[in-house]
Amino acid sequence: MSLELYVDGTWIASTSTERIDVVNPTTEERIGSVPAGAAEDVDMAVAAARRALGKWSQTAPHTRAEFVSRLADELERRQDDITDIVVSEVGTPRRVARWAQVGLGIVDLREAVTAAKHFPWEEPLRNSLIVREPVGVIGCITPWNYPLHQITAKIGAALVAGCTVVVKASEVAPFTAHALAEAVEAVGIPAGVFNMVHGYGPIVGEAIAVHPDIDMVSFTGSNSVGKRVLELAAGTVKRVSVELGGKSAAVLLDDLDVEEFAKAVPHTVRACYMNGGQSCNAQTRLLVPRSRLSEAEKLAAKAVAAYAPGDPTSGDTKLGPMVTAAQRERVLGYIRAGVKEGAKLVAGSVDAPARTGFFVEPTVFSEVDPDSTIAQEEIFGPVLSIIAYDTTEDAIEIANGTIFGIAGAVWSADPERAKSVARRLRATQIEVNGGKFNGAAPFGGFKQSGHGREGGAFGLEEFVEIKSLQL
Ligand code: NAD
After folding, report:
1. Which of 274, 331, 342, 352 is deepest in the core (most CB within 10 A)?
2. How far apart are CA 327 and CA 329, in angstroms?
């Protein structure tokens, strides 16, 4: 019997004998399996988390932060091995996976540790003492696209805040979570503080959402499942944070010179195709002045040439496969919808490349109607839509004209003008003239991209209750 669930500081077997196969998307070969867990597994994990909560929540914040810091060090030591696991189960090109998949996971933990040092755990307010206390037991339900980072973004902050956690990783990419649990064990995080169960969403995920002894669910995934989790969690009035899908726009303003424009377009292609376009913050819509549409098409087509689909273990590859056969079919379905709705196919194909692996061609559409399917729905593949606009007001309206609001970008010759447009975009993380990622900055959704924030002190705030002692 395999011991594959990490509960109460030890490895145990699932109560279920059913298995879920895990497939390498590049080779299409089965690389192993994990238990299709049961609600009883969740019960055991929650009981362990609840038992551990009393002591952990009373441990000093700097001591909790010290454990999280050690976990970051341990992941750093294991970075190459974990990168290999991510590449084999997600198909992210290796050189991207090392920093964007595993590196980002380490950054999440380090930022939580830094935030703990300056966090206002207790502060006076007139005759009151304002006290921030852990929310309690947290159920973390996470997706496959960044299988380490999506967990560490939650647990770094939750553990530092004094919460205990039950993690249900994606059944599509569960081995990365397994490697994380091994690192947790290696650094001696007290038993029951971190627990991990495996299984399908409708069984194990739903058992978490309805569990009366879970105080909060932190969910990252699709909109349809996020809504389901919100509904189920309402039964016990538990707190829920949801990090959902996106359809982010890069807005190129009309004052860019030829050189700046030639920098912004390939930058957007890269921001769209990162991780095969399977990123919630992918910049999938490129908004350009109508007079510069053909210039944008030429530059995008040129940039796309560097993204020939290939083996993600090779150092040169920039575009790996889609994570599953179903995901490939979904992306191809959207490409066909784009053609059918009259968008101009500048690069890419409605057919998958004739080779093993769940690949699709890197695709660019132009003359895309902002209200069409490919401009409105999250595709989650390497598909960029170039959209022409007439005035800056139009550009802002188009950028804000979807149900989503997670990220975006603005480019202008005038940084102040770029910032003023960035302020008007209804989304959380906006790159201004290619501004760099900041792990301490808040990340999350406006509108139907969800609510709640992750990252640094903003992530920590999600996992505390605020109360006051009147003195
Ligand atoms: P998904 O919604 O299919 O699955 C996410 C998790 O929910 C998985 O662990 C899954 O097993 C579980 N789940 C499935 N059905 C469930 C149910 N009925 N009850 C409870 N849990 C259930 O999403 P996915 O395909 O793994 O990930 C892709 C999606 O995640 C995209 O929409 C993407 O935009 C989104 N995402 C968002 C962010 C963000 O920060 N906003 C980050 C990464 C991914």
Report:
1. 331
2. 5
Separation CA 290–CA 101 (nearest Å): 37
pLDDT tens-digit readout, 229-238: 999 999 999 9
How many Cβ atoms sit within 10 Å of the Cβ of residue 431?
Answer: 22
Q: What separation in Å is there between the alpha carbon of 324 and the centre of ligand 1? A: 14
Superfamily of domain 5-244+447-470: Aldehyde Dehydrogenase; Chain A, domain 1 (3.40.605.10)
**What digits encode the pLDDT tens for the residues 124-155?**
999 999 999 999 999 999 999 999 999 999 99
CATH of 248-440, one of 3.40.50.790, 3.40.50.300, 3.40.309.10, 3.40.50.1220: 3.40.309.10
Query: 461 CA distance to ligand 1 centroid (A)?
Result: 22
pLDDT at residue 1 greater than cutoff 90: no
**Residue type (1 letter), 381:** G
User: Do 172 and 34 form a contact (C-beta atoms < 8 A)?
Assistant: no
144 in ligand 1 pocket by Cβ < 6 Å?
Answer: yes
Domain ranges, ordered by start, for the chain: 5-244+447-470, 248-440
Q: Is the dihedral of CA 26, 28, 33, 36 positive or negative?
A: positive
Nearest CA to ligand 1 atom 37: 244
77-130 pLDDT, tens digit each: 999 999 999 999 999 999 899 999 999 999 999 999 999 999 999 999 999 999
pLDDT single digits (tens) 402-447: 999 999 999 999 999 999 999 999 999 999 999 999 999 999 999 9
Q: Are 281 and 248 in contact (CB under 8 A)?
A: yes
User: To test ligand 1's pocket by mutation, which of 34, 108, 208, 222 has the most ligand atoms within 8 angstroms of CB?
Assistant: 222
What is the token pair recorded at 278?
């399977």
Domain 248-440 in the same topology as domain 5-244+447-470 = no
Q: What angle do CA 330, 336, 338 make, to 5 degrees?
A: 105
